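Students often ask what a holo structure prediction actually looks like on paper. The answer is less mysterious than it sounds. You provide the chain, you provide the ligand, and the output is a string of discrete structure tokens encoding the 3D arrangement of the protein together with pyridoxal-5'-phosphate.
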Amino acid sequence: MTRFVDLRSDTVTQPTDEMRSAMAAAVVGDDGYGEDPTINELEHAFAHLVGKESAVFVPSGVMANQMAIRVLTSPGDLVATGAHHHVVGYEMGASARNASIQFATISDGSGVMDLTELEDALDAEFDHQPRVTAVSLENTHMYAGGVPLNAAELSRLVAAGAGRPVHLDGARLFNAAIATGEEPATLAASATTVMACLSKGLCAPAGSLLAGPREVIDRARIERKRLGGTMRQAGFLAAAGLVALSSMRDRLREDHVRACVLADAFAERFPESAYDPGRCRTNVVAFDHPRARDIVSELASLGVHGGTLAPRRARFVTHAGITDADLEYAVETVHSFQLSS
Ligand SMILES: Cc1ncc(COP(=O)(O)O)c(C=O)c1O
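The corresponding structure tokens follow.
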């Protein structure tokens, strides 16, 4: 049988046996009425973990980002954010459609937004440009290669916002917590709202959470309804989410170790990419190469599946479904395959 080492994304993870048991046993109710005890428990647990007053369970990370932008802005506003952030490039223009906002995009190639550029974007209203009313951050920074930001870096960016509300897209916040050694609440402290995904490295089948001040989350619940995201007896999913939060965070470090081995292999095999494997600190390996699409498709034909983030940028992501044997095979394949001419 052809090998299938699936490094396309950490979203391909399967729920664990513990999750499946918890799902089967979950007590559920209608979350539209706030009557699903398992969802209520999950929202409470997440709010506590990220140090916020309140949280809301949603189907996806994109929906959580969209709800945050809708509650923190008004139509016509500018939101300052990284040029390569998920909310800009990978949500199908949703913020323009859902919130009628524009983005002021800031250079973020290193994974951290350029502070001077951010300050200038915020200052530009004095030059008759639209006022930036909110800032959106991302941790880990997916496009840059899962770059984790520590609390000091985040606080500097938030401080530049001079009191404007800040949303933190923490799809992989728990990876950032492992990599920086800082608590999720410490990383989220300076942000107004924070989103995290349960369905990526934490292996839950679906679901994300958005947390923040109670009044903001109450309004976000209305936006969830408007977007069609109220899921009724979704305590079955929340039960898996509770296992994700309690049992799956620590194991993310295994994904980070495996990603770094892969990063070394790609850096050695493609020195022309100038990829520094030292940049790999979490579970994402991303590098530029003029033939990124060929690399991805030719490796896939040999059973090592990744993806591209842009025409000349390849990405490979480790997760709980990748064993040491898979990693060994992937590394050997990266070293041995010949890129067609
Ligand atoms: C940084 C980031 N934000 C948001 C999302 C969206 O999450 P979802 O796929 O659950 O909508 C992703 C998904 O990959 C992501 O990488």
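Residues 11, 60-62, 65, 86, 138, 142, 169, 171, 197, 199, 208 surround pyridoxal-5'-phosphate (CB under 6 Å).
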